[in-house]
Amino acid sequence: MEAYTGFARVYDLFMDNVPYEEWSRYLISLLKEYGVSDGIVLDLGCGTGKMTRLLSRAGYDMIGIDNSEEMLQIAREASDSESGPKGNSADVSEQGRAEDILYLLQDMRDFELYGTVKAVVSICDCINYILEEEELLQAFRLVNNYLDPGGVFIFDMNTLFKYREVLGENVICENREEGSFIWENFYDEKERINQYDLTLFIREEGTSPLYRKYEETHFQRGYEPEQVKSLLEQAGMEVLAAFDAFTREPAKDDSQRIYMIAREKGK
User: Fold this and answer.
1) What's the superkingdom here (predicted)?
2) Could you list the residue range(s) of the whole structural domain that residue 199 is in?
3) Among residues 123, 87, 140, which one has the least CA distance to residue 246?
4) Which residue, 28, 102, 153, 154, is the most exposed by fewest CB within 10 angstroms?
């Protein structure tokens, strides 16, 4: 079934435990460390645009790409509702308007831009949604193609350790007034694919306590870091680092999320 349809309506509700401001400070520090303090940045798999807007407030000119029309509609509405000038990059939690963000309904495996960008970012394990190695290589080639000379690509990934030891075969449930969900995980060790079966009960607008049921199935694939590094190099990029998430420490065998940084090195 098509993903992020019914779930798009309550995605931010159930993701409110994600410290986006903290994640944005880490991401901005990486961008600056690798020479990107301003200019155009592409958020690949931007979803409802929370990180896109935080980077915009920090002074970057943002483009957001996602293949869910429902998620992008929420992103556009959220951007339109914000007011005030762009904030100081030292404090992205200050109020500011994420204005002039260009949102594009495209697939990260086959996206097109009008020109090049200084950096591409992708967070919240969007890259894991690409299930075939050949398609991941194609996405990396497109990133490399649209990066400025020396431009930077920063993205995170869930690890094989996380799928095997944390998510696999586990069920996560949450019940709130606005909605409830049941999240069942099934990990295929041979294919390295984690299947998420989501059952959602979302409260209808109005006074009646009516909840509508939605069902979605998502798939993510785990990759070995060395496999990802090889694909980045095949795509024409230089791999600069693979960090245990939110640190400057090298990725470990028990890292649950890693951040990878690559640079365009000449097309």
Assistant:
1) Bacteria
2) 161-221
3) 123
4) 102
